[in-house]
Fold:
Amino acid sequence: MTAQVSSPATQSMDATQNEVLAEVRNHIGHLTLNRPAGLNAITLDMVRSLQQQLDAWAQDPQVHAVVLRGAGEKAFCAGGDIRSLYDSFKSGDTLHEDFFVEEYALDLAIHHYRKPVLALMDGFVLGGGMGLVQGADLRVVTERSRLAMPEVAIGYFPDVGGSHFLPRVPGELGIYLGVSGVQIRAADALYCGLADWYLESNKLGTLDEQLDQLQWHETPLKDLQGVLAKLAVQQLPAAPLAALRPAIDHFFALPDVPSMVEQLRAVTVADSHEWAMATADLLESRSPLAMGVTLEMLRRGRRLSLEQCFALELHLDRQWFERGDLIEGVRALLIDKDKSPRWNPPTLQALDAGHVASFFTGFDQSGS
Structure:
């Protein structure tokens, strides 16, 4: 499949043209993220290619629906290409500023897209990958799916609309997912409402065949749902988070992250002692500042519209490369790989509520 993305005649766009493959079959536009060696992490050029193709198909009466997928068997998309953003910032460029503005605009466009979008979330769906799929109408997971907003592990916060979709997960589950950065599998994704259908990965080829032969009768969305209903299910038994829900709802409703860690170590809720200890250890390895800002962002996001959530995330982004922990997190985990980030502040005990609040200064008054 060769890309049909018509792009401006810039060298970098031409070089990455085959990193997004586009093809129309049976009135369905198929978009494939094609960087399997990099777990389909998205670059600014890929964001632009996706946006351009979606804009074109929105206007094309011959295209009834869009399918999003990742090449290879390991990942739909493991997030944004954070290394390129680190390099940009370090060399004084503005790629990191342009990237978030355009990535969020693409994610928002998918949420508002006028034709149904079917997202095949096979393999890793992390960070920026979640941003691409959470606005889709039909979100399909497989037994290989691993979903997460893992940003706090590198000293960042869950963006790409995470401030909107995480707080709308039932109870405090979304707060837990955002503040801890843990990965979940298919059953939990369905339980949390972060996916709609479960399909075994060996049936993805059959799904493609059926989409190629689909007779369009009703609305495109209903037609696609009819295909999925024959192959996929909408619930799976024994979601691990269902059993942990009483504990998660208790601990992650506490006022701040230091209280959460203290209580996780001191109080046993239901049969969750082992999970509580492991979670406390995990939180103590994350960036205290990133967790503090994430908690405040997610709680604010409960009251904000989708557009306001993206505006809040951009407001935080504009300060984060200078004032946040991302550059140190990327250094420790991706560049030097010493896995010993020097967070600022270094501990949750040293986290100052005023410091966290300062990142939100100016947002309330802006009316955004």
